[in-house]
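Page 42, continued from yesterday. The earlier attempt failed because a stray header line got pasted into the input along with the sequence. Redoing it now with the clean sequence only.
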Amino acid sequence: MDRGIEFQQPISAFPVGIVIVRAVSNRMQHLRPLVPAILAAIAAATPGQVHRVGA
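This time it went through. Structure tokens are written below.
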């Protein structure tokens, strides 16, 4: 998990969209409620953009 990718990399230059998932942990119990929003963010992702999901 990289919490600083937005600030460390030139996201606008990436040929893919980035989805940042913010959860209490990377355990399934914390990620499962975010799945619908994650899928929506993936579907809406466009190159060079950042989509944020979660708290």
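Notes: The two ends are 15 Å apart (CA to CA).
Reminder to self: strip header lines before submitting.
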